[in-house]
Every structure is written in structure tokens, then in C-alpha cells.
Amino acid sequence: MGLDLVEVSSSPDTHVCKIMDYGKYRYRQSKKLHDAKKSQTIIQIKEIKLKPKTEEHDVQVKMKHIKKFLSNHDKVKVSMIFRGREIAFTDIGRKLMEKIRNELAHDCIVDQEPRLEGRNMVMIFSPKK
Predict the structure, then answer these.
(1) Is 26 helix (H, G, I), strand (E, B) or coil?
(2) pLDDT tens for each residue of 37-87
(3) HSE (CB half, 13 Å, CA atoms) of 15?
(4) What is the rounded distance in angstroms from the CA atom of residue 121 to the CA atom of residue 119?
(5) Ranges of H-type helices in the chain
(6) CATH says 45-127 is which class?
(7) Nearest Cα residue to 2 out of 23, 18, 17
């Protein structure tokens, strides 16, 4: 009849078997996996890099990019890069990061507060649900 005998469950005292078309069963399982992958959402992390000496207009342009990324449901990592002697003035970078956080307060959730990691200060935003 073109059907297969498939063992569904095996325990030491009883074995449960089923008569089915095993090729058709595997095809349906792969289709279910494919549909599940299609419906899942992939969240990307976009990165915006700044320096403490970044001018006001450039910061506003970066803010527009951050808002665009958040509207596309992506996470945003804002990195403040300190080069050379700039590392002595981390308070300037922190003020700029706080300003960005205050402007984006109603658009997103702050996942990670500004934190100094080596010569970089990092802050992560995620979109509101």
C-alpha cells in the first residue's frame, strides 16, 4: 500500500507504532518549520558612532537616523568614541549621551545606561512595543 510502520514511542514494556506515509510526514514537518521561520521577527542592532566634539547639527542628523532605526523595530547602540586625550573629558561625552536619552525618552526604552568600556561609552536603546 506504500505505507510505512513508524515507531512513535518506545518504552521498555510497550512499543507504540503507527502506519503512515513517512515521506509525507517529513514533508509536512519541514513545511511547519519553514512557516515558523517566516513568521518570526529578526531584531538587528544598528550602531551610531559619535565623538565628544560632534557639532550640534551633526547630532541632530544622527538623532533622525536613530528615530528611523527605532521605527523599523531595530535596536540602536550609540557609541561615544574617545581618542587620545579626550578620555580625560568623559563628562562631556556623558552630557551628550544624556541629552540624546532625554530627547528619545518618549520614543524608546533605554536597555543600557551610558557605560564606559575602555575608550568607548556605550548606550543601547530598544523600540517601544
Answers:
(1) helix
(2) 888 878 889 999 999 999 999 999 999 999 999 999 899 999 999 999 999
(3) 5
(4) 7
(5) 22-39, 56-71, 90-103
(6) alpha beta
(7) 23
